Amino acid sequence: MSPSASKLTALPAALSSASPAEDAPEPPSSRVPTDAALVQAALNGESWAQAALFQRHVRAVIGLAHRLMPHAVEVDDLVQDTFVYALQRLDSLKNPQAFASWIYSIVVRTAAKRLRRQRLLVRLGLRTMTPVDLDQVLSKQASPEVASELRLVYGLLESLPAEQRIALVLRRVEELELSEIAERMGLSVTTVKRRLAAAETSLARARGPA
Amino acid sequence: MRLLPDPVKPSDAIVTDVSEARVARLWSNVSERLNAPRRWPYWLAAGAAAGAAVLVLVLVRPSSPVESAGPVVGAHQTVAAEQQQRRVVLSDGSALELEPRTQVFVAKHEPAALELDLKNGAVTCEVAHVAGREFVVRAGAVKVIAVGTRFSVSSHGGPVAVAVQQGVVEVHSGGRSERLAAGQHWISREPAAVASSAPAVSPPAPAAAPALPNGSSTPAESPEVADARKLFETANHARRSGDMRGAAAAYETLLRRFPSDGRATLAAFELGRLRMDHLGDTAGAISALNRAASAGGGSVREDAMARLVRAYAATGARDRCLRARERYERSYPEGHHGAEVRAACGPH
Fold it and tell me: Which is nearest to B182 in space by CA: B201, B200, B206, B164?
């Protein structure tokens, strides 16, 4: 059986401990293969390269997914959907070295789809949404100001339309620039500004009078 | 001058579980889906989902989604659950609990026979006793017959699983029948459409390699490995669909039939987690976690040992809790679960 036909049901042990920082640029001289090299290997049918891409980026993807959809069960589904989609469509990635930002865009857009569907189910009475208990996941190291801001943002999320919600998290929690938010969401900067303005209005209302 | 520590960024202020056990579990599911045959095109699946949603709206317009008794359902109707568990009552008083993403068609509702067709998902039936009436659930080629009992049937495209909580049921498959009492379960060796009789309790030795689902095996895979893999996939699928009992039953079967398979340790850990977090079976969880902790390595072992401490604490077994805590701290002095483990069992 050729290596490309082999199935991976467990991560290769050698990959389990090799997880460089997700956003750190990889020096060309490094012995760690670049994302571009892994993408190329995966495209050539090397299933170990799929596992390596997963292992390298999964923690950042879980983190982003968790901040976008803080309910634990949904996070796992979102992470799985994201990697399955990405690894099945590697051939559509124009710049293989940009795998990280590409997969973050997939997380964001998949989350937006799921959130739109969720809102529809809630409207139809097929689902109820419980507010996020932020204290369960808030770091003790967070300053009171950050903790208070996050409580406010997450207290509001369930009431916002999907795109406003995503834009608000990317801005207030991920602290991305407008152009980065637009790229991740696949929207124009103007549209992102409109979504953010609406979300910020709701946030100001939730905050109450100054 | 004393430097102030860097402030924690908002994104870092939200703590996320990125344990090796979670990563391994996610990869297991991702690789399983990557290796699985392609599903329906998205638009077709969406159309089917929309159709199901319309049926739900027309036939069983819900009041509240969980644990609510829906309207009474009669013959030739389809009942479905989308994202949440649903409970519906049949016109004879029998109740159905549908796990998320489940579709059941009421094929026959007559004085002598009530017949349900499980299209997909998992259903638990509380059967009202009606003298001389046969209560049947079909899942593909598998037929489950019950009189006055409570049992679950799950079918997620893979093997069919049956678990009995009260009373007795008969499972008919491939021309053979199996009688199951409370506490027993059964899993077919084949997907619902071609299921043959293969009781989980005492599987017959296969005369030849069993037929495998299209494209789901590799030529080098032995029948045993293929069976273990299918069980593991079934369990994971059931767990992801919210059918925790079906998932636990499949993990148990894998552990019993294939104790030395490479997936057994992760299966033991998942079984312990399900029993502990979802099934209220802490004693059963301890047994499974002990197995994962003794057979596993790396993070699965660490997670299992930490859970064991919590499980012993939950049962009030303080001495065992203290011993488990000591073992954890000795093995993982800088472990991920150090704070949680130290807080369990009470003071040192």
Answer: B164
- Test the B interface: residue of A67, A110, A137, A146 with most B CBs within 10 Å: A146
Q: CA-CA distance, A68 to B120, in Å (whole number)? A: 30
This prediction's pTM: 0.45
- In the block, which residue shows the tokens 């930490």? B306
ipTM above 0.85, yes or no: no
Q: What are the residues whose beta carbons fall under 8 Å from the beta carbon of B127, sequence distance 6 or more? A: B94, B135, B146, B147, B148, B149, B150, B151, B167
C-alpha–C-alpha distance, residues B175 and B262, integer Å: 33
Would you state the structure tokens that stand for residue A79, as one six-digit string?
Answer: 């992470």
List the single residue in B with minimal CA-CA distance to A170.
Answer: B11
Quote the DSSP letter at residue A24.
P
| Nearest to B265, CA basis, from B240, B222, B300 | B300
**C-alpha–C-alpha distance, residues B253 and B127, integer Å:** 26
- Which tokens is B286 given? 């301890």
Q: What is the pLDDT of residues A143-169, one digit of tens each?
A: 888 888 888 898 888 889 999 999 999
Residues in B touching A53 (Cβ below 8 Å): none
DSSP B205: P
Which two three-digit tokens encode residue A176?
A: 């991305």
Give the whole-angstrom CA distance, residue B51 versus residue B48. 5
User: Do B300 and B270 touch, CB atoms closer than 8 A?
Assistant: no
